[in-house]
Design brief:
2 strands, two-stranded antiparallel sheet, 12 helices
């Protein structure tokens, strides 16, 4: 029991250290890039007409892609385990690192905040396209700051909380299956051209994020107290505004962040969170990054605790 606990805590801890020190691996060696290419091939082969045909094909994609990712991760983990403890911890950490990112999210968020603080709205709008899918060219400085903060909060769930929890509960296969689901949702899980093809992927992503999103919201509340932000406000807004977004999950983290920073977060035509508060400024973007880092630390501790409980029970 304690041996397996130590090995898996080693994988999780070393993976977090790799992210902090090195960031993302090169694209040609990144498993998520490979997932994206596989999903892209499947999308090109999808039926172009017929709602039922697209729904069925999309459901097959939603089932087969994470199953394949999880199976490959299981095989890799088994091979590393057979090669010895050091191979499992080091190799497992390298693989695990590719399923999450804290450093990249923080750097991309901070970059937009710096450009807004410098008054370079056009460059900030361009940088913001790496974080959000909405049209950024028409966003005002405050709406650009809002979109940046919203992205930092929402991505707390799928950038690190959810893959860490998936690993804690199901090991490398769980983390890779989660990342495949999330990647598929990002590629085809939205309205418009993929309305029916991506419906199963979108619903599956909603399902697997139900618990992580709520835990991520609570992590933001707790992290707010550690950064001297408004933890009480974060808790109050989480309870009052979490259902204001179309997504059943994103509102939990975004509303908590809005309350923590005492700002109004808005996606015009879609939602307003903490509507009576002031509009966000560049300094609030920097504060959101600080909260994100501390939420990551708390989430990592939680994932480690789940690893201990999991193997203690088994």
């Amino acid at each position: 029991m304690w041996h397996e606990i130590g090995l898996n805590l080693g994988v999780l801890g070393l993976a977090a250290a790799l992210d902090l020190l090195l960031g993302e691996p090169p694209a040609p060696f990144h498993p998520v890039v490979w997932m994206g290419k596989l999903i892209g091939v499947m999308e090109r082969l999808a039926p172009r007409k017929g709602r039922t045909a697209q729904l069925i094909y999309g459901a097959l994609m939603a089932a087969s892609t994470p199953a394949a990712a999880g199976a490959l991760a299981f095989a890799a983990g088994w091979g590393l385990h057979a090669a010895g403890d050091v191979a499992y911890v080091v190799g497992g950490a390298v693989l695990m690192k590719t399923t999450f990112s804290v450093r990249m999210l923080a750097r991309a968020t901070r970059k937009v905040g710096r450009e807004l603080a410098a008054g370079d709205l056009q460059r900030a709008q361009q940088s913001l396209t790496a974080l959000v899918s909405r049209d950024t060219a028409t966003l005002s400085p405050s709406l650009s700051a809002s979109a940046t903060i919203e992205s930092a909060a929402e991505n707390t769930t799928d950038s690190f909380v959810a893959p860490w929890l998936a690993f804690a509960l199901f090991g490398l296969p769980g983390a890779f299956a989660y990342r495949a689901i999330n990647t598929m949702d990002a590629m085809i899980g939205y309205h418009g051209a993929y309305e029916y093809l991506g419906k199963a992927a979108a619903r599956l992503d909603d399902l697997v994020n139900l618990v992580p999103a709520r835990l991520a919201g609570l992590a933001i509340v707790a992290a707010s107290a550690l950064t001297h932000a408004d933890a009480a406000g974060a808790w109050r807004r989480l309870r009052l505004d979490h259902a204001r977004t179309e997504s059943p999950n994103s509102g939990w983290t975004m509303s908590a962040m809005a309350g923590a920073l005492r700002v109004r977060l808005e996606k015009p035509g879609h939602y307003v969170l903490n509507g009576d508060a002031a509009e966000p400024q560049p300094r609030h973007v920097a504060a959101a990054v600080r909260i994100t880092w501390r939420a990551a630390a708390l989430s990592l501790i939680l994932a480690g605790g789940i690893v201990v409980v999991r193997y203690a029970i088994v």
